[in-house]
Design goal:
This protein has 282 residues and is of the alpha/beta class. It has helices spanning 15-22, 38-41, 45-53, 76-79, 101-108, 121-134, 142-148, 151-154, 158-169, 179-184, 186-196, 229-234, 236-239, 251-272, and strands at 5-9, 28-30, 63-66, 113-118, 174-178, 218-220, 240-242. It has a single domain, classed as P-loop containing nucleotide triphosphate hydrolases (Rossmann fold).
Length: 282
């Protein structure tokens, strides 16, 4: 077997919802773990590929897929930390050591297809901040984090993140989706993906719309990831981290984000043939 397609991001842009939507199709077989993060951490994939394939239940006549957003986290894939040095990748539950992901994947399967979902930058950054704050990856307030924690903007550089895959696999093997469509018209998204993967529509009936990973009031601090789940449940007030109030971007933060992402969004517009100018209005 070989994996046929991957949902590679963007982080906090509906990848889990898309995963839940597509797993309803009888001809799609996802990995047992939604995000195996194999290719961002592997040192010698040829030696370890058997363990990767064990994550999939082998079936006849299916396409195999996985959904690791860690595959589009430049530049920390290259450096092991963010540009300012404060956000360290070793806090994450997976290692980020492989800056050659697209090259390794092309050697593994040159016919691989990739799905990448883009989201309005302000929305994605706030959602990403909530998750990372609640997990303990940053202690800064939202507007401070926009300046001090560069990953918030770096992970929103959609053109930069997907470019290595386009260069290696060709634009025709990359499907770019808009989070707004996933949120408002899942039948449209399902049709786009099935056409992209050359799968029959008649095999697929959308049983229910999916909205996964809605921001919760609290998440478990990463310090407690290695503890048995039962202990975490017994220590909810210690293990869980809550936001005191809903964070909002200031006009100054929006201006900074718009200035830093203007060129990225313009290049993305060319790729998607879509007007995204409203994304950076504030």
């Amino acid at each position: 077997m070989k994996v046929d397609f991957m949902i590679v991001g963007a982080q906090k842009s509906g990848t889990t919802s898309l995963y839940r939507l597509l797993e309803q199709h009888p001809s799609i077989c996802f990995s047992k773990t939604k995000e195996p993060n194999f290719w961002c951490a592997v040192k010698n994939w040829k030696q370890e590929i058997t363990s990767y394939h064990k994550l999939f239940e082998e079936k006849e006549g299916v396409l195999y897929g996985e959904a690791s957003t860690s595959y589009t986290l430049l530049p920390i894939l290259e450096t092991g930390k963010s540009l300012n040095g404060r956000f360290s990748a070793d806090k994450l539950p997976y290692r980020l050591t492989n800056a050659r992901i697209s090259d390794d994947l092309h050697e593994y399967n040159p016919k691989l297809k990739f799905i990448y979902i883009v989201r309005r930058p302000f929305e994605r950054i706030v959602s990403n901040y909530k998750h990372f704050y609640q997990r303990g990856y940053t202690n800064a307030g939202l507007n401070e984090a926009v300046v001090s924690e560069r990953f918030l903007i770096d992970f929103t550089r959609y053109h930069t993140q997907i470019s290595p895959y386009i260069e290696r696999f060709g634009r025709e093997n990359i499907l770019l989706l808009n989070f707004d469509d996933l949120k408002n018209n899942q039948e449209k998204i399902a049709t786009q993906v099935l056409d992209f993967l050359n799968l029959e529509h008649k095999q697929f009936s959308l049983k229910e719309t999916v909205h996964a990973n809605k921001t919760t009031q609290s998440k478990t601090h990463y310090y407690f990831d290695k503890l048995p789940p039962i202990l975490v449940r017994l220590l909810p007030f210690i293990a869980k981290r809550k936001l005191k109030k809903k964070p909002h971007l200031s006009d100054t933060s929006k201006q900074i984000i718009a200035l830093m992402l203007k060129n990225e969004i313009q290049m993305l517009e060319e790729l998607m043939q879509e007007d995204l100018s409203s994304w950076l209005l504030y």
